[in-house]
Input
Amino acid sequence: MRPKIITGFLILLFIFTAVFCTRSPDSSKGIKQVEEQTNQVSPKSVETWLAPDTSTIPDTKEGDLIRYGRKLITNTSEYLGPRGSVAHTSNGMNCQNCHLNAGTKSFSNNFALVASGYPKFRPRSGRVETIEFRVNDCLQRSLNGHAIDSLSKEMRAYVAYFKWIGKDVKEGDKITDAAVEKLPFLDRAADPEKGKALYIAKCKVCHGSKGQGLLRPDSVTFTYPPVWGKESYNIGAGMHRLSHLAGFIKNNMPFGSTVQNPQLSDVEAWDIAAYISSQPRPLKDVRMDWPDMASKPFDHPFGPYSNRFTEEQHKYGPFGPIKQANEKLKAAGKQAK
Ligand code: HEC
Ligand code: HEC
Output
């Protein structure tokens, strides 16, 4: 009897180890290769990132700062919003509204590459940006508010959180799902009219018929954040660029959608994005953005441009011809140098 039990046990152990060890060879590094079904036609290889588990945040003073930084991402408005307990420097939105699951979700502007990627040169400001500069950028644009001091406890907490969450990522690591998916361009301009009908059918229930969202009963923040109107992000925010908005919507909305389980086609995502972007939102002086005009992205809706396309086409597309013209100009510029 005994040897049989032992053999049986060994076989089970063998199967268990074999299955377990072949599941995700690289997950110990926090990065793994997975086959994602991003659209119905062809499966695509995505290099995804697994954020460290919050239960591993150390029980130290530094750990407390990291935990505070995480709260400032998930519940920003409770601290910095119009009724915030620390300061009133932002609208009622939270960082997490666009950086889902505290900035850990695939294809939703996650924070995988922040710690290893900054300081870095960004063409929008035309300068080398620190993490602090980048945080203030989102505070001033995405949260339509004001910058906070680099030495404030809040900024130190943001930085501590980004450093902790990105600690296993090295510069040059390939992670392809950090930003949002780059959707294939349409041959036509994205259509706000088509988008409106889709918005009413699929988004209005949470974000409201005027895009106003739904305030939480205590009025401190939103249960469903505003997608346009005076309490939403301003025209200088990254989300006001159609490719960012459409890419975000495709794999994250209606709420609960994922890259494995999207609920919209690419075309629907572009058209809904066009409708949202056609609606009013707070202004911001963006004349100093992209000081090198030639580096303005194909979907930045504010001129002047170094190409012949209109603001209207830069806002809604078709983007293919703009991108081609920009690349030609870049190549010519390089030759001239
Ligand atoms: C309205 C949506 C929105 C909100 C709210 C928002 N962000 Fe962002 N954030 C974005 C988008 C979109 C990008 C990337 C696009 C770009 O480069 O402009 C981004 C980029 C970033 C980056 C750089 C990521 C990288 O890998 O380079 C950081 C850091 C960041 N945000 C921090 C914050 C913080 C902190 C808050 C809250 C104070 C916040 N964001 C709120 C939309 C938002
Ligand atoms: C079931 C409710 C629900 C539905 C339906 C829904 N959303 Fe959202 N949406 C949310 C929530 C909640 C967030 C914020 C997520 C967070 O903070 O974790 C959000 C965030 C957003 C954001 C980023 C933040 C902002 O305010 O701009 C956009 C853009 C957005 N949704 C667009 C859409 C679009 C477009 C649709 C329809 C295709 C849609 N949503 C459908 C609940 C919903």
Remarks:
- The pocket of heme C (ligand 1) is lined by residues 76, 93, 95, 97-99, 109, 113-114, 117, 134-135, 138-139, 142-143, 158, 178, 233, 237-239, 244 (CB under 6 Å).
- The chain has a mean pLDDT of 90.
- The radius of gyration is 22 Å.
- Residues 195 and 201 are 10 Å apart (CA to CA).
